[in-house]
Design goal:
Radius of gyration: 23 Å
CATH architecture of the largest domain: 2-Layer Sandwich
Number of strands: 18
Helix content: 25-40%
Number of helices: 13
Oligomer: single chain
Number of domains: 3
Amino acid sequence: MIKVGVIFGGDTVEHEVSIISALQAMENIDEEKYEIVPIYISKDRHFYTGAALRDMDTFKYFDNMKKFVKEVTICRKDKDIVLQKVKGIFGRNVNTIDVAFPIVHGKGVEDGSLAGFLETLGLPVVGPSVLGAALGQDKVVLKQVLEANNIKTPKYVWFYDYEYGMNKDEILNKVETLGYPVIVKPANLGSTIGIGVAHNNTELQKAIDEALEYEKKIVVEEMVPNLLELNCAVCGNYEYSETSLVAEMKMKHELLTFEDKYLGGGKKGMKGSKAPNSMSTSEFEVPANIPEEMTNKIYEISKQVFRTLNLKGVCRIDYLVNKETNEIYVNEPNTIPGSLAFYLYEPKGKNYKTLTDELIKSAIKDYKNEIRKTSSFTSNILSEYNGSKGLKKGVK
């Protein structure tokens, strides 16, 4: 049976969101096909494994529950990827994994850091590659890449914290050319953490100060007028991709807050019913009540974004639409979306268990294709290297 290491947590402000996403996913992985190996990254960056990590109560009282889990490190031993016990004189193998399934959110894990580590071990990884994850995480570089490919995003200004400290008035004046209201965002966070709306100069400075508490790089965007917010997920790889249905977000405020998404009262959708197992509580409608022409355009752009950003796995792309002009702007991609965006595929007839099965199979297939490519040469230039004197004479 294939062992799937579901990795979650991490030193990120979206730590708890990752736990919820992972617990949901583990309940929806077919255990007749796969053995689930939970791997939790604590906020102090230690790795743990054990069956207790599939129970939410473990995380509510984690310091008291550590005796029921094992601290491990992930490493390669011969042909196996092993979870090796950290404590003790001799490292003991606790378990092995065949496929990594990172369900992480935020800086330091979702941004390609974790994917890079796992790929270095030579492990099939569900979800975005290092490049795709990094592009999806940094909102500034993301916009620059999308613009280079003629994909619309809202107008914006960006800057670093030290630049704001040195040239505050100049930056504020530049931001004000966008026109109020504007949205202030930390460049590398998600779940709307650290994001604020400003209607005037005073609110702008306050929003920037709050965003700088989380991140050194800030982006300020124009607020799209007559706003309609849409979501569409894409699942697949560079060869094949499938879009979900389009969802329409029912916004209570100018901006969906963290509380709206995760702490409010029941998430509604699927024509008014409560979305099962979905962590988000913001209201939405699936499919969106929009013209067929706009729906098809969203599908087209979604696949274009997926390809442009070198993505794989499942990604949810968030859109901002001006209802008067029908202009469509890409807000941002979520390269490892909350709940893996299963609720956007379920109305199409693809349930959560089928989605996770497809994601795991796709990761294994991608890995097999990758290892067929040439990754090193049989020649060894070190044989021609003469210590500190450099290359031997005559070698070019």
